[in-house]
Write a structure and sequence with these properties.
Structural class: alpha+beta
Distance between the termini: 15 Å
Largest sheet: 2 strands, antiparallel
Strand content: 5-15%
Shape: elongated
Number of helices: 4
Oligomer: single chain
Number of strands: 4
Helix content: 25-40%
């Protein structure tokens, strides 16, 4: 509860949001994360087409989908923090 009362009196910046002493943090800020985009490979046979599009190896169009070196708080944790603060203000 003491932490929340302090939060009511200060502005939080991105430094605060990347400090695991304040809020759970995801990512380390140096590791790059990749996300495979949709795979649209056509084939006359529907079953073959679906197998090609599923791409279990996840090795299609990955390199161009670099999401960057991420580090920060989960949006859900931020929403939970705001809800607690709003309850304290009532």
């Amino acid at each position: 509860m003491h932490v929340f009362m302090e939060l009511l009196e200060k502005t939080l910046n991105y430094h605060w949001l990347t400090d695991p002493d304040n809020i759970p943090v995801m990512g380390d800020g140096t590791t790059h994360y990749y996300h495979q985009g949709p795979v649209f490979i056509d084939d006359a046979d529907e079953e073959t087409e679906q197998a090609l599009r599923w791409n279990q190896e996840e090795n299609t169009n990955v390199r161009e989908k670099d999401m960057g070196a991420l580090k920060g708080a989960n949006l859900k944790d931020l929403c939970d923090l705001i809800l607690v603060l709003l309850q304290k203000w009532r």
